[in-house]
UniProtKB/TrEMBL annotation:
Ranges for region Disordered: 1-20
Organism: Dendrobium thyrsiflorum
Keywords, comma-separated and alphabetical: Oxidoreductase
Parts forming coiled coils: none
Entry protein name: NAD-dependent epimerase/dehydratase domain-containing protein
Length: 345
């Protein structure tokens, strides 16, 4: 074969374009806590990212434009989850999709079906339909351990793994709408994948902590800030708790996208810790904070969860102490512990 310079140049250009297309992925809800760390990770690895946000010009998404490589490799799309055309426009041309956006609401709402369940289900369906149209290679859907643990029939004392599913009827009975939205969306996504031949992998993270990239405060960070300020409201019903670092969760999402043989669902969590030990650890690390350590209610043991399936594909995670230390340092530097915060929906 005779090589001429222009042919070679064209060949390289095409190869580059092909490489670029392979590394083009979409992240829904890009401006949120978890998604922002994922976008940061993807950009640092040379991915081209289509990020969906409700309003790209809103100041709360400004941090995305400051991430390394964002000026060349990040494109923001305006998309509400119920708007199929907007979602499809963001996913067009992508080889992979990370579906992270979902209503994360733990406060009382007047119409949970409309405010929580519908957007979660319709949003997931729109994302999956758009993925099928574009022939996306893999969709990684962010679910939650809330889609795993609310199962009164799981045998007591048995470690919960990916075979354990939250009981939908029980969620309705206790009016746990967020948990219901997560289990319905996750089941729906895996069923859709089987039915339509779409490669869908789901990830179930436990409570996510870590420094924030965004300027707003998401729910899990809000809960932790409240504990550091002396409130036990968010942990009253638990005997033990599972956490995961937001940076390790971002690693898990990318790992599950890149590992060809990944399939099904994956619990993503550090080792469990008893609430009493968690509060003692906080008190030891931050003796000047008003952390309550002696007013815990007596409760039955919670079942523990395992991330063995994820660890088998070489996922590694930080120790809780490191997560706490980095998180609190961020809160202190950002002045979040001295602010009077309210939940704004
Ligand atoms: N943080 C945790 O402890 C935790 C644990 C397990 C699972 N998860 C899951 O992780 C994902 C991200 O949560 P997060 O903690 O990062 O919370 P977050 O910061 O509140 O992120 C949620 C994202 O979803 C977007 N969103 C919600 N409803 C939408 C709608 N109708 N249309 C378009 N976008 C919508 C939000 O946009 P706006 O900002 O515009 O509302 C936001 O970007 C969620 O799927 C959540 O269920 C989180």
């Amino acid at each position: 074969m005779i090589w001429d310079g222009r042919e070679q140049e064209k060949g390289e250009g095409e190869r580059e374009r092909e490489m670029e297309e392979k590394r083009r992925v979409c992240v829904t809800g890009a401006g949120g806590f978890v998604a922002s760390w994922l976008v940061k990770l993807l950009l640092s690895k040379g991915y081209f990212v289509h990020g969906t946000v409700r309003d790209p010009s809103n100041e709360k998404n400004a941090h995305l434009k400051k991430l390394e490589n964002s000026s060349e490799n990040l494109q923001l799309f305006s998309a509400e989850l119920h708007d199929f055309n907007a979602i499809a426009a963001a996913i067009a041309g992508c080889k992979g999709v990370f579906h992270v956006a979902s209503p994360v609401i733990f406060t009382e709402v007047s119409n949970p079906e409309v405010e929580i369940i519908m957007p979660a289900l319709e949003g997931t369906k729109n994302v999956l339909n758009a993925c099928s149209e574009t022939k996306v290679k893999r969709v990684v859907v962010v679910s939650s351990v809330d889609s795993v643990v609310i199962n009164p029939n799981w045998p007591k004392g048995t470690v919960m793994d990916e075979n354990c599913w939250t009981d939908e009827e029980f969620c309705r009975k206790i009016q746990s709408w967020y948990c219901l939205s997560k289990v319905l969306a996750e089941r729906g996504a895996l069923d859709y994948g089987k039915k339509h031949g779409l490669d869908v992998v789901t990830v179930c993270p436990s409570t996510v902590l870590g420094p924030l990239l965004q300027s707003t405060v998401n729910f899990s960070s809000f809960f932790f800030i409240n504990i550091l300020k002396g409130s036990l409201d968010s942990i009253r019903n638990h005997q033990s708790w599972h956490f995961v670092d937001v940076r390790d969760l971002a690693d898990a999402l990318l790992l599950l996208y890149e590992k060809p043989d990944a399939s099904g669902r994956y619990i993503c969590t550090q080792e469990p810790i008893r609430i009493a030990d968690f509060l003692k650890l906080l008190k030891n690390m931050y003796p000047n904070y008003e952390i309550p350590t002696n007013s815990l209610p007596e409760l039955d043991e919670d079942s523990e969860m395992t991330s063995e399936k994820l660890k088998k594909i070489r996922w590694k995670c930080r120790e809780l102490k490191e997560t706490i230390s980095d998180t609190v340092q961020y809160y202190e530097e950002a002045g979040l512990l001295s602010m009077d915060m309210k939940i704004v929906e």
